[in-house]
């Protein structure tokens, strides 16, 4: 059909505009890979353009040879034809303008709500699927049906990629999951404060925290037995008892520091008795005839632990003493009767809180302590380290490790084993 000449101006009905969805129009615009693949595409483009132009200003257009002429609204695809190179250039300009307009509208839609929806409902689901197989093994601890009701649950791959770290889980019983949280973080030492009550050993920081079900056996001895049983299976392929708790380093011992809070002479004999499940299986570090035999668990007594009971048996012992780090001169403490040499950082070298770390005089004291402990074959440990400000705590940690402390006493397991605390930090 030849081009119309002198057609009248025609405006779209507003009710028609309201019924036309925007996205299908935009979709039809974007799906055209060539402007002139067929005679139908230019007419569809012009129809779409007529609907998305501002209301009240829209004119239906017809491409003529050298100009645009108004056309009626009810033209069919076959009623429009384009001839000549200039017609193609004009149509291409209109197509480009419509494309820019469409992209602008889509950008606004994304900015106003579609973006957050995609992030929350699509990307969020993908992230959840990626992490669904790497759940925290402690997240459902103790819940019915998880196998952890008896506290001693220990999946085979629990420590499959944990690297042992020379840090001591201070007041370990305070954690949501005692013992397991520490070894899962990589700590090679844990601490239990024990109280003698009604011929049993209860674990807690003070008497207000004591409960009959939180005992030395239930929180530490029995779980360690379960852990080591799984680490040392009796099969046709393996039948030994020397593997420790860490899969990545089976020779690494775990120090169980037992801090006696009640009378040592009465409490220590019960500690020795309750260690029988570990002793009978050969899992304790021991001294026999002056020689040390390292095992998966090394028991160290501190607090009110009586040194004379530690050394009572001169031919065999499987517990060790926590010697005073700042009073080793002219003493009999050595690796045969002791394992740790510990002291309060505050009491032994003074205040480091407001200086941001030890000064020169304090460093000299630290070096003297460490030199004396190492000369005796003992592992040096300071407790009562500054927990805050964080930059001060990190600086003290860094200095102690640089100077050669053997066990870092920590309350923040993640900060010690996962964070890069050698970098300066603010408050």
UniProtKB/TrEMBL annotation:
One of its GO terms (molecular function) is phosphoric diester hydrolase activity. Transmembrane segments: none annotated. It comes from the Eukaryota. GO terms for biological process: lipid metabolic process. PANTHER family: ALTERED INHERITANCE OF MITOCHONDRIA PROTEIN 6 (PTHR31571). Belongs to the AIM6 family. This is Altered inheritance of mitochondria protein 6. It comes from Lasiosphaeris hirsuta.
């Amino acid at each position: 059909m030849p081009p119309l000449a002198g057609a009248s101006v025609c405006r779209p009905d507003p009710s028609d505009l309201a019924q036309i969805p925007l996205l299908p129009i935009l979709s039809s615009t974007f799906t055209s890979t060539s402007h002139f693949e067929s005679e139908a595409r230019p007419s569809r483009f012009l129809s779409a353009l007529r609907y998305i132009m501002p209301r009240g200003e829209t004119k239906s257009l017809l491409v003529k040879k050298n100009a645009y002429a108004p056309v009626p609204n009810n033209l069919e695809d076959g009623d429009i034809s384009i001839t000549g190179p200039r017609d193609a250039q004009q149509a291409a300009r209109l197509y480009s303008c419509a494309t820019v307009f469409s992209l602008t509208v889509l950008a606004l839609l994304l900015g106003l709500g579609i973006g957050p929806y995609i992030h929350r409902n699509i990307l969020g689901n993908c992230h959840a699927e990626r992490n669904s197989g790497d759940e925290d093994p402690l997240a459902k601890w103790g819940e019915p049906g998880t196998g952890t009701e008896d506290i001693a649950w220990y999946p085979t791959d629990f420590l499959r990629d944990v690297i042992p770290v020379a840090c001591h889980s201070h007041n370990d019983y305070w954690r949501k999951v005692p013992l397991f949280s520490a070894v899962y973080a990589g700590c090679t030492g844990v601490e239990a404060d024990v109280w003698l009550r009604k011929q049993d050993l209860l674990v807690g920081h003070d008497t207000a925290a004591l409960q009959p079900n939180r005992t030395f056996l239930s929180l530490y001895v029995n779980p360690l037995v379960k852990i080591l049983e799984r680490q040392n299976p009796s099969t046709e392929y393996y039948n030994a008892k020397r593997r420790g708790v860490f899969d990545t380093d089976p020779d690494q011992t775990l120090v169980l520091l037992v801090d006696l809070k009640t009378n040592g002479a009465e409490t220590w004999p019960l500690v020795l008795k309750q260690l029988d499940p570990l002793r009978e299986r050969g899992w304790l570090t021991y001294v026999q005839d002056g020689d040390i035999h390292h095992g998966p668990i090394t028991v160290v007594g501190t607090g009110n632990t009586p040194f004379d009971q530690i050394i009572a048996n001169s031919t065999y012992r499987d517990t060790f003493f926590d010697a005073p780090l700042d009073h080793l001169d002219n003493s009999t403490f050595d690796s045969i009767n002791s394992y740790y040499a510990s002291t309060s950082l505050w009491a032994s070298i003074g205040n480091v809180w407001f200086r941001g770390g030890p000064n020169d005089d304090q460093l000299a004291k630290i070096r003297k302590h460490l030199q004396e402990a190492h000369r005796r074959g003992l592992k040096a440990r300071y407790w009562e380290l500054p927990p805050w400000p964080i930059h001060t705590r990190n600086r003290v940690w860094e200095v102690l490790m640089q100077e050669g402390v053997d066990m870092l006493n920590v309350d923040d397991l993640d900060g010690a084993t996962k964070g890069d605390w050698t970098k300066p930090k603010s408050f």
